[in-house]
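Run log, item B.
One chain of 404 residues. Sequence copied directly from the ordering sheet:
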Amino acid sequence: MDESKLAIHGGPPIRSKPLPYRKLFGKKELEAVTKVFEDSWREGVDFGFQGKYEKLYTDKFCEFQGGGFADGVSSGTAAVYLALKVLYLEPGSDVITSPVTNPGSISSIILQGMNIVVADSQPNTFLLGPDEFEAALTPNTRAAVLTHSGGYPIDMNPIVEIAESKGIKIIEDGSQAHGALYKGKRVGRFGDIAAFSTMFSKTLATGGCGGLVYTENEEYYWPIRSHADRGKPFHISDFSQRRFDEYLFPALNFNLDELSCAIGLSTLSRLQKTIDKRFEITRKIDEALDASSVVSPALKPQYDCKPSIFFHTVMVDVDKLKVSKKEFAEAVAAEGIWVNPDYREVVSEWKWLQSYLKRGTHTPNASDFRDRTFNILLNERFSDEDIEDVIASILKVESVLAKT
């Protein structure tokens, strides 16, 4: 097969119609939002925030988690910001971060006057491991914000053991891993506090934007709520929101609204089905990759866990290609397949961050893994036919761009 037959070079693509969009917000979500309006009309009170639907939503989320306390907030960035805020760390404290995460997580640390210390990942993964965590420790380390990247849980138990021995607080960032299991428990239940994004692209979503702060420690829960809503003393059951003189401290407004909570309540009701469907899709992709001599499954956890797939990472044998990994992945994308050919969430590569680092950072394991992989983007609506087209596109590109 010559290169002119590849879609990236003008040939016909494998996929002649778009892959199915997720349509997460369907009739059930419309009914949920309509109910908020109807309740408001019936009760004669305009809906706002911190109301009936947030309580229903956060209670159901805690039930899904297996206990604990949760507050709905405006974004995943806000969730990380608040989780760090209630640890009351001294400015200038060192905070360890995962090597692969979102700028929102990093900015939440910087904006509170903390020092960023970026740990590397374990080899052949985006996930930080216990050895890498220990290597990143400084005498001034007071906390860590650890990201369960792509839906795969970090090996938390040994990290928590190290952290507890040194008085270091752990924030889990589960924004890409809602409902993932580690040692039989949901992510978010291993550190002191967990932060989740619930923006429209997430496995659990509340609409355009949103987040959750979750903890099993009630002593963190009430300060989280106060810091999320202008310092209100929520721990006092009969406090008056109009008694501004009784507020506790200066704080911003990070509230999630009732409409978003109603949407979240609806998508949460089928979250486990969503997780299971995505897992099954990736299992089928990995099985079908047996036909490829260049692309293979990338992630094989060495510990007891079940991921909640956000994107699916596959490994490329770059030594077998006539082109770069990125060019190979871009050619697959041109066949009509959703692909991120060059994942840019490797923190050590962000130029804007360098001046904020207490010390220089280099994460060779994370960069190496990115340079040998690409991410297949998918959703729970993918059919067997869609999976076949993903594999057919990889094999088509491989037939042209692999070395003979």
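Observations after the first pass:
- The longest helix spans residues 271-288.
- The longest strand covers residues 141-147.
Flagged for discussion on Thursday.
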